[in-house]
Amino acid sequence: MLTFTRKDGKKFAIDGKSVLRVRAAVYADENPGDTGLPGNTRIDVDHDYYAMEALADVVAAVKTELTTLFEFHSQSGVPIWINAKQATGPLPVSQSEIKAGIHSRLTVGNFSLLVGNTHQEVHDAISAAGGNVQPIPTDGANLKLDTATVGDLKSHIEAQYNLPRGMVRIVNSEGKDTYDKDVVAQLLKGHGNREKR
What we know:
Layout: E1 2-5, E2 11-14, E3 21-24, E4 41-44, E5 48-51, H1 55-63, E6 69-73, E7 79-83, E8 87-91, H2 95-99, E9 104-108, E10 111-115, H3 119-129, E11 132-133, H4 150-160, H5 181-188
Parallel strand pairs: 8-11
Antiparallel strand pairs: 1-2, 3-4, 3-7, 4-5, 6-7, 8-9, 9-10
């Protein structure tokens, strides 16, 4: 059992193996009528607990009892620690979520979590922990603007629409095959069909 401190100074104990998620407390966690955050760190088990201990200290303590606690991050890079053995994923994300910096989704307990990690990272963590690993989605989140190639884009389109390999061609305005990274970036941003004025 692990012991932490509530905001009122009282101690509470939890079984580290039952932890689903650990993250820093945020203003959305505030209770109506209370002033300030209910604690520094939120610990989700069968319900939410708030500890005054720092996130790093809570994570270190939980990891002494739970070896399947993996670090993920939000779309803005904020760390979220998940019990990957209890997780299901990776799950698809929408194109608007991809544009907002979300690259994958997973579920743990009653939470559906959007993360900035790639589908591959989510897949690998859940697989390593012995969780409910899912096939990597073909929603386009694995294509990154700064590293995608024309081949990546073609393969993604073929997989997304179940087309035979080699069926997709990406051409420039002159109708010639293109390998220009700027063209790929334009297409990935959704501007490929817009005419320049």
